[in-house]
Amino acid sequence: MTPMSNAIVALVVIALMLTAVLTWSQAAFTSFDSVSQSLKQMVQTTQEVSRTDIKVINAQTQGAFVEVPVLNSGEVHLAQFAKWDVLVQYYDAAGEYHISQLSYTENSNPGDNQWTIVNIYTDESLGQKEIFEPGILNPGEVMLMRLSLAPLPGAATINFVTVSNANGVATSAQFKG
């Protein structure tokens, strides 16, 4: 082999090594960026959850419905009501035990095993409807939920409702049938 052919082979080998190093570096930086973005998102979600709090004030049966006022006692504005979970554990008139996960509806009179928002109020007295940012449960505001259960809860039964918002913060309360 001539010195010129040795130099060409060396240049090709060096070019291949540089290409491999650059490709590996790009993959490493892309992976690092992806992990970094995921970590940022996790921190933001954790911070939002730590600033979120909801509380059922006084759940009660009102005719064919169960009304559940939920206070936003945290610091985060809450919405995305279709992503909220409502679970009810109750006894019907025959004494049978039911566990129901209710689905959200925007209809003011929910169908069987559905829930809706009657209104959002400025405070726990439920006297003044919200004015600022309609449709968003701001800190200090109360959302009155209407639940429709099938079959109906039995009279004088002790029942349980759990409400969980879109980021997983939950609250529970008992109500009488």
Question: Topology of this structure?
Answer:
Blueprint: H1 3-50, E1 54-56, E2 60-62, E3 65-72, E4 85-91, E5 97-104, E6 114-121, E7 142-148, E8 158-164, E9 170-176
Parallel strand pairs: 5-6
Antiparallel strand pairs: 1-3, 2-3, 3-7, 4-5, 4-8, 6-7, 8-9
Q: Gyration radius, to the nearest Å?
A: 28 Å
Instruction: Calculate the mean pLDDT score and round it.
Output: 92
**Total strands:** 9
Task: Provide the helix percentage.
Answer: 25-40%
Beta-strand residue percentage: 25-35%
Broad structural category? alpha+beta
Distance between the ends: 97 Å
- The run of helices and strands is HEEEEEEEEE
What general form does the structure show? elongated
